[in-house]
Design a protein that fits this description.
heterotrimer, A mainly alpha, B mainly alpha, C alpha+beta, B: mainly alpha, 11 helices, C: alpha+beta, 6-stranded mixed beta sheet, 5-stranded antiparallel beta sheet, 8 helices, 20 strands, 24% helix
Chain lengths: 292, 262, 357
């Protein structure tokens, strides 16, 4: 092959290569990237096409701020509780002296349960803790505890929190288990030989090493909860005005009387979940560097 | 270390309770349709409901289309990136992870604004158009899982070396794809397919906002209108999801055995 | 004066007996190696001394104090692992300071000790680095410094060099020995590499399937192995089976030749089978004067290595290995040819347990 013809076929080959990416590029552009750009731009546009910050400012309206605050609350709470209980469960299952098959079964179950979010989950909780739910009935008939009388209502913030935990905890388990496995046995033994027992070891070595993973997963769980719609829809209907529900209502029927406010809300959602995911990625790469 | 083991069992038991109680409760609740006695009345009512059949079949069909189109786009792409354009890999991976970052409700909002009747691609103007839009929406949602499944499958069989070896033995592209690549990534493809199926069947937001008669919105509607049928629906949905996951596990275990001798 | 005593140590995991009855007295400042193949129990013994395994039977005591019931954190023992086990979230200085921090020492004491330790291992400027920024050899030295910073009574090293490159292994083992000598700290060193053990230890314990086959100084272990296992494991060995002819005079028959052993009377009876062994350097090509004995050997394989020619030959039914120097006017023996091979009876090693299979 002469140099010039090699260069030529090199060019041809690279053009052919790029051609192979067209289907994916088209798909991603049409159904992922363009819609997102549309939203981002739309958030800064007026009805007649001019640029404006009014939509973003409109996010400061009391009902919208309330929705954002509510979403933040439930996302932070379920992320925190999900991290806490998920971590405890993960520790119990990976290094708590439990049989190996229990660990494998838990991981498999978590793989499925983390995808349980949505309508069936809501129904399951209604069947458990709803007015006629089995736990409610048992508590009333056997233990004489009246849930409703005690102020618990499934169709509420606390009920939704509980339901969200059903997929947040397994997600935490799935992600933190490899990090826990990465805690080398030798570190514990080295710490012990240097005088640091159980709690000291966790305080000085294990927790600091796990910290990036914990924080990162917290951010991930936060984003996960923030964007969830179906469970809330099926459980609490429109009674809980979290941001996705607000957006849902706005899309359906322009309840906010301002089409571009919907853009702003959607943009806010992208920004919040985007930042949370960024935090997760940055912390995860930091954690991986240490696990070398 | 006895205390830690007791604590572990205690934690694990609490966890098991929290996760299994709702499943049991749902099943028990679904049997309570007839007053005073356990029966499968709720299931009968659901299964004989024409709406159930319509929406269920609609969702199954959509799932199948999604799987086909999804795999048709993802598989060659994953293959291409591995073989010809490895430098593009981080960018492609980033894109495939975007659906996990951007909430589905935002994506569908984008669809409605972008492809409404006054836009350059008025998909929402017709029923078929909306169906196509919904299908591509589902494909977008399952993109991360499909790509990861196929990419892992290709990585395991070291596609580059395999292709070079085949080419040095005189095989053409058709032979390579049909006789080498496909059989080896079949398991990965099927895993991705089952995952997509589970996702599509239970999906709500996209179908609801695009106003299509899918299984998800049907379930929500039932939740607001009936007492015991929703529980039966939930049991059916759980069973399907579990079946899909179990099949994936079976497949991966089967493929591991098949690969063992090599 | 015994500083550390391991008495009657036994360890079983379920039905498997990993360590048999193990006794060892260690003097203060002594450097002892536990040498043996994988699975011989050497690491288990080390872990029992450290406190991570409890012996099924037996005691461990230091300066007369029984430490067997103590937790690892109470034993004041330094530990160095094969995988370094440096805490990834702490800098080098913080790693070295760890034990002192846990003991709540004053910061000024800690800072001084850390500086001293880093100087001792030759890395005085790397205090602010993180473990992942260091090479394997550097990490292991930091691990050593960390273990020594708390001035432990005993230092335990579990195959510390196995994960390192060959060159570093050789230089680092020298360093470890120098530091140990300088600090005078009693040390137990576990390894499967016999060259390592022989080159730096005061005494070597050769372990085989959970028991100590032989304990002694390196040159004794090499030149006077007391079991076939030790003879085979340490250095290469050619083994023979001979028959006792006269047990009082110490005469045995090897093949069709009589040998006068130099050990005087034998404990065996006449016509007993007895195990003899000789290092390759003890065998010579050609006839030698008495008291050397000459045997007939059939050449099986010739490897021309340059200045050395490595031969494999069959002598009295045994395949043996022997080396001979190249001479430019003599061709190497041909395969299949019969040659004379000589040995001096004083170079023969008597194998006390002839465990022939």
């Amino acid at each position: 092959m002469t140099p010039s013809s090699r260069r030529q076929s090199g060019l041809q080959v690279s053009f052919f290569n790029w051609l192979g990416m067209v289907p994916f590029a088209l798909f991603a552009a049409l159904f992922l990237i363009l819609p997102t750009i549309q939203i981002v731009f739309g958030a800064f546009r007026t009805v007649d096409g001019g640029v404006t910050f009014n939509n973003i400012i409109g996010l400061g309206a009391p009902n919208i701020l309330a929705a954002i605050w509510l979403s933040m609350k439930i996302s932070l709470l379920t992320a925190f509780l999900g991290c806490l209980f998920g971590l405890l469960l993960a520790i119990a299952v990976t290094r708590g002296g439990l049989p190996q098959w229990l660990r494998d079964a838990s991981l498999t179950f978590s793989g499925v349960a983390s995808n349980f979010a949505g309508v069936p989950l809501a129904f399951a909780f209604i069947a458990t803790l709803g007015r006629l739910g089995i736990v409610t009935v048992i508590l009333r008939d056997v233990f004489n505890i009246n849930l409703a009388g005690a102020g618990f209502n499934l169709i509420s913030f606390s009920g939704l929190t509980l339901a969200y935990l059903y997929f947040q905890i397994p997600l935490m388990l799935l992600i933190i288990t490899p990090a826990l496995d990465g805690l080398k046995r030798e570190w514990r033994e080295a710490a012990e030989s240097l005088g640091a027992d159980g709690i000291e070891y966790w305080r000085r070595v294990a927790l600091p090493v796990l910290w990036p993973s914990l924080l990162g997963t917290f951010a991930l769980l936060f984003a996960n909860a923030f964007g969830a719609v179906a469970t809330a829809m099926a459980l609490t209907g429109s009674s809980l005005s979290i941001v996705p529900i607000l957006l849902f209502a706005q899309i359906r029927g322009d309840v906010l009387q301002d089409p571009h406010l919907g853009y702003a809300i959607a943009f806010a959602m992208i920004a919040i979940t985007g930042i949370a995911n960024l935090i997760y990625i940055v912390l995860r790469s930091r954690a991986e560097r240490w696990q070398k | 270390m006895k205390l830690s083991r007791i604590a572990s069992w205690f934690t694990f038991s609490l966890g098991t309770l929290f996760f299994f109680l709702p499943l049991l409760a749902t099943f028990e609740f679904s049997l309570r349709a007839r007053r005073g006695v356990y029966s499968f009345d709720a299931y009968q009512s659901v299964l004989s409901d024409p709406q159930f059949r319509e929406t269920f079949i609609y969702s199954i069909v959509m799932a199948l289309f999604t799987i086909v189109i999804g795999l048709a786009i993802v598989t060659p792409t994953a293959f291409w990136v591995r073989l010809k354009l490895p430098k593009l890999r981080p960018y492609v991976e980033f894109i495939t992870l975007l659906p996990l970052v951007i909430p589905p409700i935002v994506i569908v909002f984008g669809y409605i604004r972008l492809y409404n009747t006054s836009s350059w691609l008025p998909l929402t103007g017709t029923v078929t158009g909306t169906n196509i839009l919904l299908m591509f929406g589902y494909a977008t949602l399952s993109l991360p899982y499909l790509y990861r499944a196929v990419d892992t499958g290709l990585r395991t069989i070291d596609i580059r070396t395999l292709t070079e070896a085949a080419q040095s033995l005189g095989a053409g592209w058709t032979t390579i794809i049909l006789r080498l690549i496909l059989p080896n990534v079949l398991v990965a493809l099927l895993s991705g397919a089952f995952l997509t199926f589970a996702i599509v069947i239970g999906e709500y937001v996209l179908a609801a906002l695009l106003d299509r008669p899918a299984f998800g919105p049907y379930m929500v509607w039932m939740g607001g209108n009936k007492a015991y049928e929703p529980a039966a629906l939930a049991v059916i949905a759980f069973a399907i999801t579990w079946a899909c996951m179990a099949l994936i596990q079976l497949l991966t275990r089967f493929s591991r055995h098949a690969k063992a001798p090599t | 004066m015994t500083y550390m005593k391991l008495e009657g140590l036994q360890k079983s995991f379920g039905k498997t007996r990993v360590v048999e009855h193990f006794d060892l007295d260690i003097g203060k400042g002594e450097f002892i190696s536990l040498l043996g193949p994988s699975g011989c129990g050497k690491t288990t013994i080390l872990r029992m001394v450290a406190g991570f395994e409890s012996p099924t039977a037996g005691h461990i005591s230091i300066e007369g104090q029984d430490i067997t019931p103590l937790r690892p954190s109470q034993r004041n023992i330094g530990l160095v692992f094969q995988s370094y086990a440096l805490f990834p979230n702490l800098t080098v200085a913080q790693n070295v300071a760890f034990g002192l921090k846990v003991a709540r020492q004053k910061q000024s004491v800690i800072d001084q000790r850390v500086a001293d330790m880093l100087a001792l291992i030759g890395l005085p400027k790397l205090g602010d680095r993180y473990p992942y920024e260091l090479s394997g050899g550097q990490q292991q030295r930091v691990a050593l410094a960390r273990a020594l910073a708390v001035r432990p009574r005993v230092l335990l090293l579990d195959e510390p060099l196995s994960a390192l490159d060959a060159k570093i292994r050789v230089s680092l083992r020298r360093e470890i020995r120098d530091i140990q000598r300088e600090l005078g700290i009693t040390t137990i060193f576990v390894t499967h590499d016999q060259e390592e053990a022989l080159s730096i230890s005061d005494r070597v314990v050769v372990m085989n399937q959970g028991r100590a086959d032989q304990v002694g100084e390196p040159h004794v272990i090499y030149n006077h192995p007391t079991t076939r296992f030790v003879a085979n494991f340490v250095g290469t060995l050619n083994t023979f089976e001979a028959v006792v002819k006269d047990e009082r005079k110490g005469v045995v028959t090897l093949g069709d030749v009589d040998l006068q052993l130099t050990r005087g009377a034998l404990a065996n009876s006449k016509n007993d089978k007895i195990g003899l062994a000789i290092r390759p350097e003890g065998l010579m090509l050609g006839r030698q004067k008495a008291p050397a004995v000459t045997l007939q050997a059939t050449i099986e394989d010739v490897q021309f290595l340059g200045s050395v020619i490595r031969l494999r030959a069959k002598v009295v039914g045994q395949s043996i290995s022997l080396d001979t120097f190249n001479r430019n006017n003599v061709a190497p023996p041909a395969i299949g040819s019969v040659v004379d091979v000589s040995l001096h009876p004083k170079d023969l090693i008597l194998l006390q347990d002839s465990d022939f299979t």
